[in-house]
């Protein structure tokens, strides 16, 4: 009798724990910054990113790959802009926008293959909202243009707000495409 009571208490305890865990939902979070320009391993991480393009060859894997890179490069751009590294930040922002632009292409391919993309579309929609918020904050926090002048070369005008606006437009377009589906 004591064994049955013991098993009953344990099963109730476990069912309460597992039922609570299934109700927990976290907001979409961006990754912690990876290696940044200037770090010895940064170049290697960029090479690994390119190798992974071939490693993740399926349509679902490609969607997750592009989403991950877009997140990574957005965090990189945000961090570089915070440290007034506008040239490097603008490059990272361009890469983030390019990667985010690839997402709907792979979703359409996966859907044409008959794969259910519902959960991934929800995740991407949440990501798009986070991207949009961060980009809008970046637009407020950074100058519209910046003239970058290297030591022995001609200067370059960086149109920071144009790049940020391009990123917002891309994310908004992807979000609208996802809502239509």
Would you mind describing this structure in some detail?
The protein is mainly alpha-helical. It has one domain. It is 73% helix and 3% strand. It has helices at 2-23, 42-55, 59-82, 86-112, 118-141, 160-180, and strands spanning 146-148, 156-158. The longest helix is centred in the middle third of the chain and has 27 residues, at 86-112. The mean pLDDT is 89.
User: What class do helices, strands and sheet pairing give?
Assistant: mainly alpha
* Helix run count: 6
**Average pLDDT, all residues:** 89
Termini separation: 56 Å
Mind telling me the C-alpha Rg? 22 Å
Q: If strands are numbered along the chain, what order do they take across the biggest sheet?
A: 1-2
* Spans of at least 5 consecutive residues with low confidence: none
Tally of domains:
1
Please summarize the sheet with the most strands. 2 strands, antiparallel
- What is the number of E strands? 2
Strand content: under 5%
Question: Percent range for helical residues?
Answer: over 70%
String of helices and strands: HHHHHEEH
Gross geometry: elongated
């Amino acid at each position: 009798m004591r064994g049955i009571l013991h098993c009953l208490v344990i099963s109730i305890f476990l069912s309460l724990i597992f039922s609570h865990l299934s109700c927990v939902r976290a907001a979409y979070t961006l990754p912690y910054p990876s290696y940044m320009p200037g770090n010895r391993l940064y170049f290697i991480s960029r090479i690994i990113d390119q190798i992974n393009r071939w490693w993740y060859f399926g349509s679902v894997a490609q969607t997750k790959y592009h989403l991950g890179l877009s997140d990574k490069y957005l965090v990189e751009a945000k961090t570089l802009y915070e440290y007034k590294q506008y040239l490097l930040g603008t490059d990272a922002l361009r890469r983030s926008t390019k990667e985010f632009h690839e997402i709907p292409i792979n979703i359409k391919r996966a859907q044409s293959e008959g794969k259910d993309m519902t959960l991934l579309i929800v995740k991407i929609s949440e990501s798009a909202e986070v991207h949009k918020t961060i980009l809008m904050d970046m637009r407020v926090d950074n100058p519209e243009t910046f003239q970058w002048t290297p030591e022995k070369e001609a200067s370059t005008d960086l149109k920071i707000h144009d790049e940020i606006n391009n990123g917002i437009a891309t994310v908004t377009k992807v979000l609208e495409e996802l809502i239509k589906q």
